Each structure stands twice: as structure tokens, then as C-alpha cells.
Amino acid sequence: xNAPDSDFAAARALGSAGRELPxxxxxxxxxxxxEAMRRTLDEEFRVLTAPDAEAARGMLERxxxxxxxxxxxxxxxxxxxxxxxxxxxxxxxxxxxxxGYTDSHDIIAGVNxxxxxxxxxxxxTPDHLLGTVRSAVExxxxxxxxxxxxxxxxxxxxxxxxxxxxxxxxxRRAYDFDRIVRAPGSPLDGVCxxxxxxxxxDLSALILGESGTGKELLARAIHCASPRMAGPFVxxxxxxxxxxxxxxxLFGHKRGSFTGAVEDRIGxxxxxxxxxxxxxxxxxxxxxxxxxxxxxxxxxxxxxVGSSRTLPVDVRVIAATHxxxxxxxxxxxxxxxxYYRIAGVSLEVPPLRERPGDVIAIAEQLLADVSAELGxxxxxxxxxCRAVLMGYPWPGNVRELRNELARALALSDELRLPARALSRxxxxxxTGAAASTTAAALPAAGRLQDRLDAVEAxxxxxxxxxxxxxxxxxxxxxxxxxxxxxxxLQRFGLESPP
Length: 498
Ligand SMILES: Nc1ncnc2c1ncn2[C@@H]1O[C@H](COP(=O)(O)OP(=O)(O)OP(=O)(O)O)[C@@H](O)[C@H]1O
Description:
Rossmann fold, nucleotide-binding, Helicase, Ruva Protein, domain 3, 13% strand, binds adenosine-5'-triphosphate, CheY-like_superfamily, five-stranded parallel beta sheet, ATP binding, single chain, 16 strands, alpha/beta
């Protein structure tokens, strides 16, 4: 669940320009503990890892890292020594030392000069580690907020207004619909055109699509093209949060309303006031919660848990789900009245396998992004690699593609990414898919002409699918005239999907 995180509403959105999560660096020479920390923190933070001080400094130079976790025992120098060194160059980075009991003597000796925020003692538990890093990120946020406030006070109102306008322009550019990468003629063109139209009006929107297809990206683009763009964009993953927690997160609570409610809390609806709230996985919410959500949307006000007062909120709702919500309505598991409230306009983002023409365009962009993030140069994808990427069905959609490229880049040294750097899953998928297509399409025995026809049909089908039924391009690639191509497609009964 991401709440906006700065005083400046626009900067909140910009802070998440493709970098929604705070950057955390884990420095540890032990691969296993590095991995364990990465796994624990991965959901909430962008985790980078470095095996030693030198690699860590490289990462700090390239990324806006907010928190560094460093093991006390490393070859060459201790964690405390490392923190002393980086404190001079990166004073704002919050430093967390990971150490065992036996290290205490060394640590105490150098603690003040290293400016350590907190310790994590080994063996750590995931909850403790997460809690510590969350507080470190909060500390970093407050520190930055204060610095910015001081600068603003010194700069005066005119300079402040100029900076605000510049930030807004940057946000608009960062989330322009053009930044949603796609090939010319992609099915996403229509989706983006429609989204851009509805962005101007204060209508609710429902974005449908499988996980990882880019629903949140589209929602952000809508927000940034809307008159609310200077307001906050707040993301809530309704599927990941239990019912009771979801209610307090969204609507807030009064101090003492339940055990653990030690102070009043402002809900995310209020935090999104004047902006947009993105309710991801709305189809996963319970019937009881749907009733409460409907009331808020109908009345435009929230009642914090344990409070007798309601508070007005002015929020545009964009919801998303990977479920077939109309079917859920028919089956009675999703309220019909809520459905009509949130589905002012429905937009459907097709899965990546239904837009194979987009795969390479997106992969190239993601490769450039990941290469910049990892500080590992890359000049593109080689032909074999493209073929494998094209042949894989991408059940996890663009998110899976991004993860795959990050993994392949980290594990290979080549500038142009070769197919062999890709996971076995993809390479097998490729051979498996090719083999099964071949096996299914090709008769095992029979006249030579029949078998050649089967091969021809298979090549035509693959080409048309890859080029998204662009007949001019396909004819040029296959060395046929458009008429010749059309005749062949007819002969083999190949038609573009409706
Ligand atoms: N067309 C695209 N161009 C560039 N990046 C994309 C595109 N589509 C998706 N991405 C990237 O893929 C990742 C997943 O996208 P996003 O989070 O928007 O998907 P989602 O459908 O909201 O997923 P989920 O339903 O699991 O929350 C993000 O890093 C996003 O920036």
C-alpha cells in the first residue's frame, strides 16, 4: 500500500516516476543472507545488493538510495568503517548495521562517527527487519521534508511557484500516455486513446486486465492527464490487506477504537483528497467491505473507524482487477451497485501474449531502464534473444518480462543480451512451443506436398501473429505481393482475430 510521501503533492507523484518504491541497498558478502534480506524487503522497497564496499559505493553514486543495510563483518573493512566513509559523501543516507552479538565491542568503539540509525541483530526476523527499514525510510522522508522546507522558506513564494510548475511539467511528461510503450498499431493504442479522453472528465474508471499488464501505469497516466494531476495519486492494493485493516487504512481510525490504535490515523481516502485513489484488485474485497466502500463513493464522505463524525472527501476513483467483474456480479460475489459506481468507464488492458508485437518494443525499453538501474551497460537484445522473448507466452505479463531481463542482465557479461542468458523456463517454453506447434501442424506421414503445405501454413501463422496481422509488413518480409499473401492466407484458412 503506497501513500503519497512528500509535502508537495506533485512531487509525490514524481517521486514515483517508475520508481514508486524507496531504494534500499543491502551490503553483505554472504550471498545467502543477502538473498534472505532481499526477499524480505522486496515487496515494499526497491532492493539493490552489493557484495563489498566498492560495489556499494558504485550503487550509491548511481541511485537515489535512502537506506543502506550493511553487515558488520565484511572482507577488507567493517560495516562501521564503511559507514564512516560514506557518511561524508552521502550524509542523508540512513545507515543500519547488521551484526551479531560478538561484534559489539568493535561497534561501540566507532558508533558515533559512523552515525548509525539502528542495529539489526542476527539472527533477525523478517518482521523486525521490515519494521526497522520502514522506520529508516520514514526518518529519511522527514529529513528531506525538513530540508525542502528550509529551502522553500529561503526561496520565497515566487521561486516556490516556479519550482511547483516545473515539477508538475515533469510529472506530466513522466506519465504521458506515450510513455506506455507499445509497437505501432498495438491494441494498446485504442486503450490509451480512450483513457486519454476520459482522463479530462471526473468519471470513475475500471481497468481490467491480468496481473502485470500495466493497469497501474495506465491509472497513473489518467491521473496525470486529468485536472487533478497536481493532487495526490494514492495506491491501495485491496487484495493484499485483510478486511479490518483495509477499513482503517482507507477510512482512518480514532485513537482507542481498537487495541493498538494508540493515536488518530488519517485514512488513505483523506490523503487522496483533491487527487485520485487507485483501488487495485477491487474484485478481491469482501461483501462487508464492498458495502462500506459503496457508502463512501455515494456520499463522498468517510467515517473513520471508531468515530461518530464523517469527513467530506473529494477523490476520483480508478479501480482495477484481474477478475471478470461482470461474472462476479452475476455470481453474486460482487455488488452490482458498487460495480456501476466504479465502472463509469471500463478499459481493458490485453495480456502480453495477445499483443506479441509489443514484446520487443517493451523489452528494449525495459532493458534500458534496468541497465541504468543496475549500472550494467547493455546495448540491446541479440536476434536469438528476441526470438525467444517473442515465442514465450508471458503468463506474468510485463512484470515477468522486466524481472526476466533484470535477471539475465545481472547474470551475463555480454553487451547485447544473448538468448542463453535467459531462464531455462523461457528457453524450454520456446523449444516446447515450437515443437508442439510443429508437431500439431505437421502431419507425421503423407505426401510431400501436404507436409510442405503444413510448414508453409505454420510460417504464415507465426509471421502474421508476430506482425499483428499487418499484411504490408508480412508481405515485404516474406517476399510476397499483398495479393499473393492474401491468396495464401485464404488458401490455408488463416484469418485475423476479430
Ligand atoms: N506498456 C508498458 N511499457 C512500459 N512498462 C510497462 C508497460 N506495461 C507495464 N509496464 C511495467 O510493468 C510493471 C507492471 O505494471 P503494473 O504494475 O502497472 O501492472 P498491473 O497490471 O497494475 O499489475 P498488478 O495487477 O499485479 O498490480 C511495472 O514496472 C510497469 O511500469
